[in-house]
Specification:
By secondary structure, the chain is of the alpha/beta class. The protein contains 18 helices and 16 strands. The chain is elongated.
Length: about 525
């Protein structure tokens, strides 16, 4: 059994751009518990008021799987363990498990702590033995262990012996600077295992992009606890990413850590933590990212339709992910057929529609269109090729005015639009925060009388990319829009050398897709 120890709420919050509120931390702790994490490190109660408040807030929670852990350091030099303020703060958190870290590397003992090597050993022993009398579990994090071992193996092992003799339940080998490579971790862990009776853990940082590999190497050599964070959050380059470690342990190494059902919650947990951190989801993250099982090349798609194992190292459903097929100018017939089946459109590989869609797709992408993030526009393209695309409205005219009356005043944007819907002409105007916003408001205002469900649509994201920078301000641009309602999200695209026209194309596709989606639901009910 490999124990999973999550430190997202403590080490993870030391990352740039991450700041969790107390309520965020409580919600994440619940999510980690549902995932099946064994130990959740809640924070350092002696270091800041927020962590103190978190332990108070979480005290009433009943976790189904996880044990909450408070984190801190060994006692200070020259202070008895029972009188040490840090150890008192750890006990005040009232957790049944406590993790403390101590110095392993002589450089830190003499230069950072400025104590003797013997005093450092006493600090480790006193702190662990004192806490062990007060709580069920005490874990000892050997900070900078691998650097310390490479500097002086004998002394590094003495620090572990001090923690072991004091009764530490786990001794965790820390690659705090993240500079150790997998083969070094394996060799050193193997040596430590021969000389230590206490169970071993691994805590790796990702400064050399090897934290996951280092963690797995340590497990192979006998470590039975793995510390890490969700999505690899952490100081500098981050911590070992549990979202990669967990499936590697469970699926690749056949080691017990989570149940099959718990593993399916991995992607959802990763996305939930990202949402609370207010960070975008990492598309290319292994196992749980949107692109982890996304296929673009026509040869790849043709192969996975026959057997997914041809280009997928595991089944995505194991970690709560799903297979995706992208459409682009690299697409072949297989991509079109896959997407058509996904949209419930019945076409065969011999159908002329496939060839028509493929030809138009490649032409449009040559012009700058991109459908990898605009699958709603692609579905409308298929409907058009099938001659099933309904025209919900016809544009007669639009005009956008962006006016700045003086240097000290903000620019003023206004859009007027004239549409025809089922023979009825609607002419209206709207103001907005910029020309695109004004045009979007005017378009919605003109359509809402005929299609009330348009009010449900929200613009979630708007991106503009210059496609040919050498043309300066006359360059062609691509606009990607993400829209959504209460149940779905969808992407649309527009391309033009006029940013307003490109935005118009994407905005229109976004609203037309909503109407098409509503129409499809009505037909399904009949």
């Amino acid at each position: 059994m490999i124990l999973l120890y999550d430190t997202t709420l403590r080490d993870g919050t030391q990352a740039e751009d991450i700041s969790f509120s107390v309520e965020d931390k409580v919600r994440i702790a619940r999510s980690l518990d549902e995932l099946g994490i064994h130990y959740i490190e809640g924070g350092w109660p002696g270091s800041n008021p927020r962590d103190i408040e978190f332990f108070k807030a979480i005290a009433g929670e009943k976790l189904a799987h996880a044990t909450l852990v408070s984190f801190g350091s060994t006692r200070k030099a020259g202070v008895k363990a029972k009188d040490d303020a840090n150890l008192k703060a750890l006990l005040s958190a009232r957790t049944s498990a406590i993790t403390i870290f101590g110095k392993t590397w002589k450089l830190h003992v003499t230069k950072a702590l400025r104590v003797s090597l013997e005093e450092n050993l006493e600090m480790i022993f006193d702190s662990v033995s004192y806490l062990k009398k007060k709580v069920d579990k005490v874990f000892y994090d050997a900070e900078h262990f691998f650097d310390g071992y490479k500097d002086d193996p004998g002394y590094a092992l003495e620090t572990l012996k001090a923690a072991e003799d004091a009764g530490a339940d786990y001794i965790v080998l820390c690659d705090t600077n993240g500079g150790t490579l997998p083969f070094e971790v394996a060799e050193i862990t193997r040596e430590v295992k021969l000389r230590t009776l206490a169970p071993l853990g691994i805590h790796a940082h990702n400064d050399s992009e090897t934290a996951v590999a280092n963690s797995l190497s340590a497990v192979r050599e006998g470590a039975s606890m793995v510390q890490g964070t969700i999505n690899g959050f952490g100081e500098r380059c981050g911590n070992a990413n549990l979202c990669s470690i967990i499936p590697a342990l469970k699926v690749k190494m056949n080691l017990d850590c989570l149940s099959v059902e718990q593993l399916k919650k991995l992607r959802g947990t990763a996305r939930f933590v990202n949402e609370l951190a207010n960070l975008p989801h990492q598309k290319n993250q292994s196992y749980v990212g949107d692109s982890a099982f996304a296929h673009k090349g026509g040869i790849h798609v043709s192969a996975i339709l026959k057997n997914p194992a041809t280009y997928e190292h595991i089944r995505p459903e194991l970690v709560g992910n799903h297979q995706r097929v992208l459409v682009s100018d690299l697409s072949g017939r297989s991509n079109i057929l896959y997407k058509a089946e996904e949209y419930g459109v019945d076409i065969t590989s011999n159908s002329g529609v496939v060839q028509d869609v493929l030809a138009e797709l490649k032409t449009l992408e040559h012009q700058g269109f991109q459908y990898e993030g605009a699958e709603a526009s692609f579905e409308l393209l298929i409907q058009k090729a099938l001659k099933k695309k309904q025209r919900f409205f016809k544009l007669l005219d639009f005009r956008v005015i962006d006016e700045k009356r003086s240097e000290d005043e903000a620019a003023h944007a206004e859009a007027t639009i004239k549409l025809e819907v089922n023979g009825v002409v609607e002419h209206t105007a709207a103001e907005g925060d910029g020309p695109v916003n004004a045009l979007d408001k005017a378009l919605r205002k003109a359509l809402e009388r005929f299609y009330p469900s348009i009010k449900e649509v929200q613009l979630l994201d708007f991106k503009v990319r210059v496609l040919a920078g050498m043309h300066g301000t006359a360059a062609k641009v691509r606009v990607l829009v993400e829209s959504g309602d209460s149940t779905d999200k969808w992407g649309t695209v527009g391309v033009s050398d006029n940013v307003i026209e490109a935005s118009w194309q994407a905005l229109v596709d976004g609203l037309e897709y909503k109407l098409f989606k509503d129409q499809r639901k009505k037909k399904a009910r009949k």
